[in-house]
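Quick illustration for those who missed Monday's session on complexes.
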Amino acid sequence: MKFLDTLFEQKSRQLAQRSSRRGMLKGLGTLLVGGAAIPLLPVARASAAASKPAEEGDPNSCDYWRYCAIDGFLCGCCGGSANTCPPGTEMSPITWIGTCRNPVDGRNYVISYNDCCGKSSCGACLCQRDEGDRPPYRSDKTNDVNWCLGTSSAVYHCSTAVVVGVAFED
Ligand code: ABN
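Prediction with benzylamine bound:
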């Protein structure tokens, strides 16, 4: 028993002399961060692919597939794009949601129609496709609404059509 005690003591002392606490923490940190990143990488790529489908068509034309449920001026004709607000305007965080079929891959996508706010009505490229729109007495299902809510200005300028992701289909 004395022999084992001495052996373990010696080995522990040798290990302690050869290694530092900082080095051990560094190794542990590398293992944890590296290990966590490995399963995340393919997931990140998959979600990026879902939110950026292959597309065709002119985003400044009312025929563009993403505009199937829109009611407003196309931001692409107002100095912005289908995804971004024109300079000097602010994107509303509260939106009208539609589901549109992408003709390239035949899949349905959830589209968020975020209004851009803070400048008077753009007036260019009015587009009213209104798919799924219901009369205003169903306020949760109407798109004929100024969604400039939660923004610093309630003045409507134009509408974007941001792809949220692939729609759930059963
Ligand atoms: N969501 C576009 C819009 C803004 C003001 C009035 C009607 C529709």
